[in-house]
Amino acid sequence: MKLSVATCYFPVDADIWRNRGYVLRQMRIAREGGADVAHFPEACLSGYAGVDFQSLRGFDWALLEACTRDVLALAGQLRLWVVVGSSHPLTRQHKPHDCVYVINDRGELVDRYDKRFCSGDDLVHYSPGNHFTVFTVKGIRCGVLICYDYAFPELYREYKRRGVQLVFHSFHAGHVSPQRRRLMGEEVGTGVHALNKGSSYPEIRMPASVQAAATANHLWISCSNTSAPHSCFPSFFVRADGIITGRLRRNVAGVLVSTVDTEERLYDGTAGWRDRAMRGVFHSGRLVRDNRSTARRCL
Q1: Residue 220 has pLDDT above 90, yes or no
Q2: C-alpha R_g of the chain
């Protein structure tokens, strides 16, 4: 099975109408580039509360809905699947979800993923979600994760258990002020910057964790981030063997088109024992009964 994925990258901010313009424009670019799916960053329509704007108090939900309907309409016109970050309002007494909408190529909203692991700062503005989201595009089973979910490999493992082959992971690791960037670098420790690809936890840990998840689970992963300066990393795409096959330029809006080919013969170092580990059998081969094996305090 083959699927063409456009991993999008633009400077998300508090202006819903401006965000809409970027989304519609990059949807068209994606389709012109032969993509079957356009994948966008976390909260890319609504903006990200606590970072792009201070709070959701007085938020224009009506405008957000109208802009989302424009995305639905264009998806149908282009015959393009769209995986787009936003915010989903709940009843008045509850905080909204930080979400990703899944829109099919007929312009229909077919599912929604809600960020499950919200950070402490997120919980000031958002309610966590409680479900996985699995859907199929051109015969390929897909799942969705959002930003801080990266830190919980159990989520990737559960998607693997459910037969998912491609994960759309939407991030908002950007719009970092120079002062905040300096503090983030100090948190890591300036003495180790030269040893790592980046100088902050998001720059170092997020891409590395995604590659590790692809490697351990043999999953293709599209990683879409905001390009708003400073962007901690540009949008990129990971093959099922853990190899990054494409990466955009940091802080520069763009669209990366990649091909998922589930029939491609890729190295899978965990294939022999992964199902076993998922069943709770944490060793390969056959265990032996030997007194010298059980006596662990002798030479």
Answers
A1: yes
A2: 20
Domain that holds residue 31: 2-294
Specify the CATH number for the domain of residue 188: 3.60.110.10
CA 271 to chain CA centroid, Å, is 24
Q: Is residue 251 part of a domain?
A: yes
The letter for the amino acid at 257 is: V
Letter for the amino acid at 110? V
Per the DSSP assignment, residues forming a β-bridge with 254 are 9
| DSSP per residue, 136-205 | EETTEEEEEEEGGGGG-HHHHHHHHHTT--EEEEE-------HHHHHHHHHHH-GGGGGGSSSSSHHHHH
**Domain presence at residue 299:** no
Cα separation, 149 vs 262, in Å, equals 24
Query: Could you read off the pLDDT of 16-60 as tens digits, one per residue?
Result: 999 999 999 999 999 999 999 999 999 999 999 999 999 999 999
Establish if 94 belongs to a structural domain.
yes
Stated pTM of the model: 0.97
Residue 167 in tokens: 């994960």
